[in-house]
Amino acid sequence: MITGGPGTGKTTVIKSLQKTFGYAIQMEAGRSIIQQQMLQKGTLLPWLDPSGFADAMFRISHQQYLENQLHSETVIFDRGIPDIIGFLHLYNLPVPKAYLDAATDLRYQSKVFIAPPWKEIYTKDAERQQSWQEAKATYLVMLNVYTKLGYQLIHLPLDSPLNRTLFIHQHIVANTAASF
Predict the structure, then answer these.
(1) Is the separation of the CB atoms in 32 and 45 below 8 Å?
(2) Which residues lie below 8 Å from residue 22, measured CB to CB, with a gap of 6+?
(3) Which of 83, 150, 158, 165 has its CA 20 to 30 A from that of 41?
(4) Cα end-to-end span (Å), the chain
(5) Per-residue pLDDT tens for 9-68?
């Protein structure tokens, strides 16, 4: 699992992990929903309907989690169910009990990578409309949510995509070796 604020290089590193080491990946549900809604001129967007957007993210993230339980290989997730709780906190919206139950019961690996805010690489795009201040706030919320859920957070270094990829791969290999 890789979490953190927007614009911190998560997706770049996840795609690099897939390309370089062949890891299976699950891309962020939120971005795909935004892309689809923008194409269809829909309203299920975080800036128009945050609760509906959270529901859509939950359905997809829950399904991704369940589908990947069938795999014996390592799967890298670009965000997960706890991120939806963080999203709702950012909007000061109530968190449905089903989300809390899923975040408690459906556990990812105990070690989660978190990408810290990095102003030098942060950019907005069509799907990422958060300000730099919102990006930093998102990071802090994710830090809090994952910590409260008992995950051990590993901060990604502010380094090149290749070095970040190697950093994560080395942790995965060490964690896998320690499991035997």
Answers:
(1) no
(2) none
(3) 83
(4) 21
(5) 999 999 999 999 999 999 999 888 998 999 999 999 999 999 999 999 999 999 999 998
